[in-house]
Every structure is written in C-alpha cells, then in structure tokens.
Amino acid sequence: MARSTLLFSLMCLSFLYVPSQSASAATTTAAAINPATTNFIKNSCKATTYPTVCFQSLSPYASAINKSPRQLVSTALTVSVDRAQSTKTFVAKLNKIHGLKPKEYAALKDCLEEISDSADRLSKSVRELKNMGSARGPEYSWHMSNLQTWVSAALTDESSCMDGFSGRAMDGRIKSSIRARMTNVAQVTSNALALCNHFSGKY
Question: Per the database record, which ranges form the Pectinesterase inhibitor domain (predicted)?
Fold first, then answer.
C-alpha cells in the first residue's frame, strides 16, 4: 500500500512539472519578434553543447534579448536559475513522500542539497553580472571570473545529483523523473556557461 501511494504521488508531481517561463515571454508572438534577433540567438547557440535546447529556452525571450550579448547571457543564466529552483521544489516534495527506501531517501537528500547549492550559485552569477556594470580591465576580469566559477560549480552540483542515482537499486520512476529534470537543468546551465565564455570579451 505504501509503495502504491509513493508511485501515485510521484505521478502527480510529474504532471505538475513545467519548465518555468515568465509571463512576458509566454506572450511573445512570432510576429512581434525581429527575425534578426531570432537569428542572433540561433547563431549564438551554435557555441553551446546543446544548441537546440539553447534556442528553445531563449527564443521566447527574443524581444528582451534584442541582439545584446550581455542580455543573452543574463537571460540564459536566469533560465538556469528558474529551472534549478523548479527542480529543487520537485525534489523537496519527492523527499517527503512516504514509502521511500533508505537508498532512495539518501540519494534524494543528497540531490536536494546539491540542487540547492546549484540554484544558489546560479543566483550569485546573475547578481555578479549585474554588479559588473560597465567595469573594464582588471575589475571586469575579476567579476567575470567569479561568474564563470559559480556557473561551473553549479554544473558540477547538478552532475553530482545525477551520479547519485547511477547504479542504485531504487524505483525506476524516481530515478527517471529525477534524471530527466536534472538533465534539463544541466543542459541549460552548460549552455549558459558556454555563452558566458563565448561573449566574455564582448561586453
């Protein structure tokens, strides 16, 4: 009975998962987007490991990005924060479900800590980009180094969470649902880091 309740709860949580997107982005229509901006995003995404994911996650914000390398990086980081926070909420809820095996609970507890750290570091990277302002020279390099370090560390946290479910004897639904979400978070974070690296000398 406890296991049935666990699976039912997991299914309910899975249906609630939708990658977050701001209201303004959701209302952006193709007719309102300058084709040049769309091409800018698509061409910029070629520098990432997951260009399709990159374009799909950033194109809804085309009007805000408006061919600005700095705004492109800022948007990519914000998308990563949103996805990490959403996944953190999912893992936290899943961690409270009754009927978990000890190994499942341990893996989920570790993952919650790691995705929490990831979300925090990504949030710091967004603030660092804002604090960078119009900095130049050594000051600019210092801010950029901090930003890249935090995004890289966030990516490591996300990878650690997924590794925690490898080879463990646990419910397949739990493993697949966690890995699906963490894979998406890791991909948008990897893309954000690639865009940051690519445009680090352009603003």
Answer: 36-195
CATH number at residue 110: 1.20.140.40
Angle between helix axes 102-132 and 69-94 (nearest 10 degrees) is 160
User: In which region does residue 25 sit, left (phi positive, over 0), alpha (psi from -120 to 50) or beta (all else)?
Assistant: alpha
User: Does residue 151 belong to any structural domain of this protein?
Assistant: yes
Dihedral over Cα of 135, 197, 64, 77: its sign = negative
Which residues neighbour 195 within 8 Å (Cβ) at sequence distance 6 or greater? 44, 45, 47, 48, 54, 72, 73, 76
pTM of this structure? 0.82
Q: Report the pLDDT value the prediction gives residue 166, as an integer from 0 to 100.
A: 76
Q: How far apart are CA 3 and CA 150, in angstroms?
A: 39
C-alpha to C-alpha distances, 156 to 2, 105, 128, 145, 194, nearest whole angstrom: 34, 21, 19, 16, 14
Given the structure tokens 């680090």, which residue do they identify? 200
Full residue range of the structural domain in which residue 143 is found: 69-199
In this structure, what token pair is assigned to residue 66?
């408006």
Q: Is the pLDDT of residue 27 over 80?
A: no
